[in-house]
Amino acid sequence: MVTEGAGERPTASTVAGADWLADRLPAADTPQWQRLEAGLRQLGTVDRAVYAAIASTPTPALDEPIRRLSRAADNSKLWLTIAAALAIFGGRAGRRAALRGVLSIGVTSAVVNLGIKSVYTRRRPDRAGAGVPGERHVKMPDSTSFPSGHSASAFAFASAVGRDLPGLALALNFLATAVAYSRVHTGVHYPGDTVVGAGIGASTALTVSAVVDRFQDAHPGS
After folding, report:
1. Which residues contact 56 (CB under 8 A, 6 or more apart)?
2. Closest alpha carbon to 139 in 49, 212, 71
3. Whole-angstrom Cα distance, residue 100 to residue 93?
């Protein structure tokens, strides 16, 4: 179980597994490998610097709304609520979009929580050490930090629903971005975790949507 004081220290640079990957690169003395390893470690430094900068920037007017948004996205409650509204009020297109969005969340959650998080064990940030204000705090999850499941689910839902309801795509992607940022603002994720999570979610949504489209083409009456 990861606790508040058990996160990685600011002196250990890593971004979304960059130092982990760098340590596992094949041994080689070529300039190309050396540049790649150095680049990965420098990305780690940038990742921590951005986290530290957000933690140290006073934002008293934003802290409570962002904290509430982060909590609203726990267990995908925010997205499931939107899906329910689409299914009830959005007609056939809304029901199709809701189904596509919920399926994308389910597959993305499995990929992140049962797949990637079980393989890569990046520890949560040291929120107390970084000085994240208490007004921002949400419960520090017990799971590993990489990648961000909240970000993955957010972008999976936004990307999937946007295929059927393009008029909502911009608003949903903006909301997904806000949720991803909230995980850094509240101190429970590094920025790199959320960026990679967003990419995983959007990519998974494309795959799920392609499967759904193929099924609907094969069963036009379904």
Report:
1. 130, 131
2. 71
3. 10
Write the pLDDT tens digit of every residue in 2-54. Answer: 333 444 433 333 445 555 555 555 555 677 777 777 877 888 889 999 999 99
Annotate 107-138 with three-state secondary structure. HHHHHHHHHHHHHCCCCCECHHHHCCCHHHCC
| Structure confidence by residue, pLDDT tens digits, 147-178 | 999 999 999 999 999 999 999 999 999 999 99
Number of domains in the chain: 1
CATH number for 139: 1.20.144
**DSSP character at residue 76:** G
The whole domain housing 199 covers 4-218
* Residue whose tokens read 């948004």: 69
Look at residues 112, 113, 88, 83 and name the one whose alpha carbon lies nearest to residue 100.
Answer: 83
CB crowding 60-72: b at 16 or more within 10 Å, else e: eeebeebbebbee
* The model's pTM: 0.82
CA distance 193 to 16: 5
